[in-house]
């Protein structure tokens, strides 16, 4: 039966690949990968996802599927490190676990282990690097000075603990260059050159730093606040990091309207859908009437509260959530830094609603 099973599996995989190619989107690719995993062809699924992520870099479902596969490969290593915690841990074990969970996309677990590591082993720099790196990723995406400041504080703490960590010093120098903190970048680069005087990367960055304008007076907090202010004034800078899907709809809001209008047909009890720009301005809504103004205000407050909560609790940024109200269901989500709110009655089961919106985001908005 072995050859017959292999033949049957190959036919199923070929059929799944053909379905994927009919309407190529993150959702259809993920469906193919699911079939590959079920047929014990995880390696083929991984290859497809790695190629697709380059094509659809902002796809949540592809990132989730990729991390799920990485997590499968990391399960044994995670188990070994967790066992080591029971037998006598050190800062390095917490760091390795945090790094593994970060690679798998489980940022909350990564933050939890690295925070425990800093608390129990405050003289080990690795866990500060994890926390600082996560904060800096958020700063690059959202351009919020509070994230940038916290990232720098954590990474500087790590640098104080190990003055010859080349990668860390280089990362700090690049951060300072990115925000225009010329003098601070030069300090870090000179630290590298003190123990690696011929390092070509450091010398190149030092040349770039000397070409910058002199840093304005004030500390790092003032520099970051000014950087955020400039980002607010220039939409192009504020919109950096938005993928092709988001850019497409920012350029053509009428196309987005035609897309979201289809939700009325596929969501029983549909009431309204509203999409905001990264600056929380109305981009598209259906129905398109005078009621949208108060929905925009409410959504803006909700998303700002979610962001504020994530900053205060030091957890991953709010991306989606389903809420039950007296009048029905509200589904809030962020995709490509666009903010969307869907309002409907409770005629539709919540799990079914989530599945429908998932396909809408990962398939309909791409084709």
In spatial order, strands of the major sheet run 2-1-5-4-3
What is the CA-CA span between the terminal residues? Answer: 41 Å
**And the CATH topology of the largest domain?**
Beta-Lactamase
Number of domains: 3
- Write down the Rg: 24 Å
Average pLDDT across residues?
87
Principal-axes geometry comes out as globular
Q: Residue ranges: pLDDT <50 for 5 or more in a row?
A: none
Label the CATH architecture of the largest domain.
2-Layer Sandwich
Number of helices: 18
Describe this entry's structure for a reader.
The protein is 69% helix and 9% strand. With 367 residues, the protein is an alpha+beta fold. The protein has three domains: 2-55, no CATH class; 137-241, Alpha Horseshoe (Serine Threonine Protein Phosphatase 5, Tetratricopeptide repeat), CATH 1.25.40.10; 244-364, Dynein light chain 2a, cytoplasmic (Beta-Lactamase, 2-Layer Sandwich). Strands 2-1-5-4-3 form a five-stranded antiparallel beta sheet, with helices on both faces. A hairpin with a 5-residue loop joins strand 1 (270-276) and strand 2. Helix 2 packs antiparallel against helix 3 and helix 4 packs antiparallel against helix 5 (91-103). The protein is globular and about 65 Å long. It starts with a helix and ends with a helix. The relative contact order is 0.08. The mean pLDDT is 87.
């Amino acid at each position: 039966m072995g050859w017959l099973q292999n033949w049957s599996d190959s036919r199923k995989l070929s059929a799944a690949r053909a379905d994927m190619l009919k309407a190529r989107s993150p959702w259809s690719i993920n469906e193919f990968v699911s079939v590959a995993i079920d047929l014990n062809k995880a390696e083929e699924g991984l290859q497809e996802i790695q190629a697709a992520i380059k094509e659809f870099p902002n796809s949540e479902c592809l990132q989730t599927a990729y991390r799920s596969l990485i997590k499968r490969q990391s399960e044994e290593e995670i188990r070994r490190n967790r066992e080591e915690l029971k037998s006598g841990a050190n800062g390095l074990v917490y760091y390795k676990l945090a790094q593994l969970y970060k690679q798998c996309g489980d940022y909350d677990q990564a933050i939890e282990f690295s925070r425990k590591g800093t608390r129990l082993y405050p003289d080990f720099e690795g866990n500060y690097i994890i926390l600082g790196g996560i904060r800096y990723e958020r700063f690059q995406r959202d351009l919020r000075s509070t994230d940038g400041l916290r990232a720098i504080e954590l990474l500087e703490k790590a640098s104080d603990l190990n003055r010859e960590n080349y990668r860390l010093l280089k990362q700090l120098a690049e951060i300072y260059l990115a925000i225009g903190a010329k003098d601070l970048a030069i300090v870090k680069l000179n630290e590298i050159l003190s123990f690696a005087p011929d390092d070509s990367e450091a010398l190149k960055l030092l040349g770039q730093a000397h070409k910058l304008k002199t840093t304005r007076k004030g500390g790092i907090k003032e520099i970051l606040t000014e950087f955020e202010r400039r980002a607010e004034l220039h939409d192009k800078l504020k919109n950096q990091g938005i993928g092709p899907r988001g850019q497409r709809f920012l350029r053509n809001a009428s196309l987005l309207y035609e897309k979201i209008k289809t939700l009325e047909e596929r969501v029983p009890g549909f009431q309204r859908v509203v999409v905001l720009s990264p600056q929380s301005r109305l981009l598209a809504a259906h129905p398109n009437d005078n009621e949208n103004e108060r929905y925009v205000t409410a959504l803006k407050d909700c998303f700002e509260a979610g962001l504020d909560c994530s900053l205060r609790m030091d957890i991953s940024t709010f991306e989606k959530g389903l809420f039950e109200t007296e009048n029905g269901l509200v589904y809030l989500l962020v995709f490509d830094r666009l903010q969307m709110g869907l309002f409907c009655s409770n005629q539709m089961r919540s799990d079914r609603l989530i599945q429908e919106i998932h396909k809408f985001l990962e398939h309909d908005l791409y084709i």
